[in-house]
Amino acid sequence: MGKPERTKRQKRKFIAGLLSAVVPGSGHLYLGLIQKGISFILTILLVVEALLYFSATGIRINVPLLILLGLLIPVIYFYSLYDVLQATDRVNDRRRAMESEFRDWRKSMIFALILIGEGAALLLLHSRPLWLRHLIEQRGREGAALGLVLLGLILGAFQAAAMRRASAQFHAARAARAASEAEGREESHDS
Fold first, then answer.
1. Contacts for 140 with CB less than 8 Å, ≥ 6 apart
2. Are the CB atoms for 24 and 77 separated by under 8 Å?
3. CA-to-CA distance for 20 and 86, rounded, in angstroms?
4. Percent of the chain at pLDDT above 90?
5. CB 39 within 8 A of CB 108
């Protein structure tokens, strides 16, 4: 007789949601999604630091930028809460299948690059170098506008790719259904 299999305890949505409601990203840490949790925590910190930086420095106040940064905080907060509730089921299914998120090295490399970028941005915003102030004063509006245009293009490209995949799946399913119906008609004619 072999050892009885030990089942891992399932993660609870209530605890994950409560943790994410207190500190965005902490629910992901509870679920074992370390990369996602740290990403949410660092993103909130980066947005808050940028908001404080742009409102406290001697730079001319760019009100639209401050509004955008102020609106990003609740968006990130509620997305973190939504994502942790959705991820709980996936994590529990994965725990049953005994898979690990850390096995995919590409995810780890992308995460490492994100951490380096966020750390560099936090360092720049915290140290407030003179060249950054001048750059923001002279090219801040154009940079923000260009960033929003690029973000829109990237999101549009992802949406277009998702629509193409959905359309291809729909057409493949329709073709399979038509082939099945044609095969059914041939069998009925043969009998």
1. 59, 62, 65
2. yes
3. 12
4. 5
5. no
* 86, 50 Cβ separation under 8 angstroms: no
First to last CA, the chain: 54
Q: Report the candidate in 157, 46, 39, 155 with the shortest Cα–Cα distance to residue 101.
A: 39
Residue from 51, 28, 73 nearest 121 by CA: 51
Residue with tokens 């074992």: 32
Are residues 138 and 65 in contact, defined by beta-carbon separation less than 8 angstroms? no
Distance (Å) of CA 51 to CA 67, 112, 127:
9, 24, 14
pLDDT tops 60 at residue 7: no
pLDDT at 105 over 60: no
Residue 5 is given by DSSP the state: P
The mean-pLDDT minimum among 3-7, 19-23, 66-70 falls in 3-7
At residue 177's C-alpha, the angle toward residues 171 and 179, to 5°, is: 100
DSSP H stretches of helix in the chain? 13-22, 26-31, 34-56, 63-97, 105-127, 130-190
Q: What is the residue extent of each domain of the chain?
A: 13-128, 141-191
Q: Token pair for residue 96?
A: 């049953």
Residue 4: band (very low, low, confident or very high) from pLDDT cuts 50, 70, 90: very low
Q: How many CB atoms lie within 10 A of CB 137?
A: 14
